[in-house]
């Protein structure tokens, strides 16, 4: 999804002079090849002006911080099937059915985040257990209740064989299933937030489906206890990047807040986007990663302890088994840069992924990608210099 509010920003092309203990560290070398990339930090006002679109993105990320992990409900649900921010200024844009999205037309959605998990990788739909949970923020409790009812009704009416189901532990939940089909849909409100659950199991066992919904609600409601919804009037003033992490990444595109191209995630929220969320979250904690910035084809991992950068680099270098990256020569003269080549093309992502470099400097490790070997080294050199610009 794309949250777009267009503006032009100038791109400065200048090499950054970094001096440590009176000696050059390599990024000062005037012969350093940065290619087309700026080698200094470029700030912008993407967080300064009021923006409802940016506020919806930030509120969605705040909801993601409180979304329950599926394996907290069923220990077998360890495989992430995707998810993330699912709302923009037009409403909920993905992860729920078309009839449910249409039912939300006219309701002012302030944010939404969802995730899907299963007990196996794709390919075994008929025998898998799967759970999808979405959180959708509305302006107030009354609006949330009306939106939940509209979504439940729209989904119920898609098939004449659907029948209502009671979830006894949560009598206000609106639920239904189709006899003989091993799925259940359910909607419940908590304050001004709609909790939407969709579950599938191998066999059409209604008792087990209801128990799964019950456990999901119990865990999700517990996670929401520490969440404070943002009032609608305050939404445009929410800041995406209060610590100014994103300008520390080389500027390769517009500074337009967007969940995929320009955003800052907490480790817990970012881990929900990967294949093994709980494992990823544990690794982020182990290696002291406190925030992740995403800027187009670059990622910034902020560290609690700069002295542990080498550990973080080793972890991040081993984190993509699908492409089977192998080491290649890095950037001459820069020991903080390591580069890798994928042994096979990516079948899951359209973004450039053939070559990547990891750049460690100070309290951050950056990861950059390109489909050209010379280009990724230029980008890595520029990124190393930009991380040293501590203005």
Automatic annotation (TrEMBL):
<feature type="domain" description="DUF7373">
    <location>
        <begin position="245"/>
        <end position="389"/>
    </location>
</feature>
<feature type="domain" description="DUF7373">
    <location>
        <begin position="47"/>
        <end position="239"/>
    </location>
</feature>
<dbReference type="InterPro" id="IPR056463">
    <property type="entry name" value="DUF7373_C"/>
</dbReference>
<dbReference type="Pfam" id="PF24088">
    <property type="entry name" value="DUF7373"/>
</dbReference>
<protein>
    <recommendedName>
        <fullName>Lipoprotein</fullName>
    </recommendedName>
</protein>
<feature type="region of interest" description="Disordered">
    <location>
        <begin position="24"/>
        <end position="48"/>
    </location>
</feature>
<dbReference type="Pfam" id="PF24092">
    <property type="entry name" value="DUF7373_C"/>
</dbReference>
<keyword id="KW-0732">Signal</keyword>
<feature type="signal peptide">
    <location>
        <begin position="1"/>
        <end position="21"/>
    </location>
</feature>
<dbReference type="InterPro" id="IPR055797">
    <property type="entry name" value="DUF7373"/>
</dbReference>
